[in-house]
Amino acid sequence: MFNPTAESMPVEKLRALQLERLRACARRVYERVPFYRQRFEERGMTPDDLRTLPDLARLPFTRKSDLRDHYPFGLLAVPREDVVRIHASSGTTGKPTVVCYTEADVALFTEVVARSLYAAGGRRGMIFHNAYGYGLFTGGLGTHYGGERLGMSVVPISGGMTERQVTLIEDFRPEIIACTPSYALVLAEALYARGHSPKTIPIRYAVLGAEPWTEAMRAQIEEMLGCKATNIYGLSEIIGPGVSQEDANEQNGSYIWEDHFYPEIVDVETGEPLPDGEWGVLVLTSMTREAMPLLRYWTGDITRLIPGENATGRSMRRMDIIRGRADDMLIVRGVNVYPTQLEAVLVTFPQLSAHYQITLARAGLLDDVTVAVEVSEGYFKTVGPELLEEGTPPAGSAVDGLSRQVQHRIKDTVGVTVAVRLVAPGRLPRSQGGKLRRVVDERPAR
Ligand code: ADP
């Protein structure tokens, strides 16, 4: 549902609302969460010192480690009995962290996801194939409730069991689907294996997120499924998916639902706030949460706020794609590289597929990066046998030539030299519906 009162309120009104909500939130955590009271006191501040929105930057960041230190319920701003739902993050970067919701928090989650699904193209009455994982992960249940709220017929298929997913897509004919982008490709391949083409695939909209992806990957998914694919972003610490979402008619950045989640972009190294347009770490404050509001949560996600006018009449700011996590950043011979930058180069080669894996190893003192990528089925048919052999392809062979080309293009665009290994289709790990780990770190601990 499009909520014009919220989504296109005049910017001045939005800023005033944010300040009011921010101050109320600061007061609540100051009164009720010892961790935050201490944070204010350390800075010699009280919530009354937040007179303008930029004043927020005087407070320190809340980090994942703070959640772990207060595991499981130490950051609650309400009595534990008022919690109606508990989720935990998947622990992409270590031990899981626990997040809690009151009834009002679940209602908020439902509202922002309903907004998101509407922006993605979802409408009342559509069949919604929800292939996000159900369980402790926020993805499945979050999108589920939002889909019901919008009035869609939600199919809670969850992740995995791809063949069964394909059967249900054939039988129920969903117009909209939600999953990770890597799993969307797996589903597309499985549909093709059963003889489908965009003409016979019913899906018109795909709402994809939970892991980084690129424009090139979007183009590939849209072409294979014959649909419009949009980005949904979120993290459990703030609420789950539905912190921001792209508009299907615009596809140019994801609207942050700023009436609830206040965004800042800060410098990766210094933590200083950066102006709109510059790339840095996204920091979010969940102003209207009851159970576990967080002030200045360091997401670790690298993005920027897109400056300038948008095409949808919304007053909220858009964020660009996530280039990666601050902690996913590879430093290759001194150059900062995000996996998605490598992906963007790989998908410019029609001979390659979008399935790739990056391995970090250490030879002597230096880190070595190898990018393994599966070739496309078509290309495999022309050079198959050579690829099946392990080891380096013979110099001068087609495969050798192509991997050199890929290596050069990566060097030219990203600025680093990596080893490129082409492998046969189906050789690399696939998403099972959850997040796909793109980087394998084989370096011994220093
Ligand atoms: P975990 O930290 O265990 O992965 P979550 O399941 O809450 O916990 O995942 C949140 C993280 O997933 C985000 O901080 C971000 O790194 C990633 N993510 C979520 N949505 C997107 C998206 N649309 N694009 C890129 N990354 C995303």
UniProtKB/TrEMBL annotation:
<comment type="function">
    <text>Catalyzes the activation of phenylacetic acid (PA) to phenylacetyl-CoA (PA-CoA).</text>
</comment>
<dbReference type="GO" id="GO:0000166">
    <property type="term" value="F:nucleotide binding"/>
</dbReference>
<dbReference type="Pfam" id="PF00501">
    <property type="entry name" value="AMP-binding"/>
</dbReference>
<comment type="similarity">
    <text>Belongs to the phenylacetyl-CoA ligase family.</text>
</comment>
<feature type="domain" description="AMP-dependent synthetase/ligase">
    <location>
        <begin position="78"/>
        <end position="285"/>
    </location>
</feature>
<dbReference type="InterPro" id="IPR000873">
    <property type="entry name" value="AMP-dep_synth/lig_dom"/>
</dbReference>
<keyword id="KW-0547">Nucleotide-binding</keyword>
<dbReference type="InterPro" id="IPR045851">
    <property type="entry name" value="AMP-bd_C_sf"/>
</dbReference>
<dbReference type="InterPro" id="IPR042099">
    <property type="entry name" value="ANL_N_sf"/>
</dbReference>
<comment type="subunit">
    <text>Monomer.</text>
</comment>
<comment type="pathway">
    <text>Aromatic compound metabolism; phenylacetate degradation.</text>
</comment>
<dbReference type="InterPro" id="IPR011880">
    <property type="entry name" value="PA_CoA_ligase"/>
</dbReference>
<protein>
    <recommendedName>
        <fullName>Phenylacetate-coenzyme A ligase</fullName>
        <ecNumber>6.2.1.30</ecNumber>
    </recommendedName>
</protein>
<dbReference type="GO" id="GO:0010124">
    <property type="term" value="P:phenylacetate catabolic process"/>
</dbReference>
<dbReference type="InterPro" id="IPR049623">
    <property type="entry name" value="PA_CoA_lig_proteobact_actino"/>
</dbReference>
<dbReference type="InterPro" id="IPR028154">
    <property type="entry name" value="AMP-dep_Lig_C"/>
</dbReference>
<dbReference type="GO" id="GO:0047475">
    <property type="term" value="F:phenylacetate-CoA ligase activity"/>
</dbReference>
<keyword id="KW-0436">Ligase</keyword>
<dbReference type="Pfam" id="PF14535">
    <property type="entry name" value="AMP-binding_C_2"/>
</dbReference>
<feature type="domain" description="AMP-dependent ligase C-terminal">
    <location>
        <begin position="334"/>
        <end position="443"/>
    </location>
</feature>
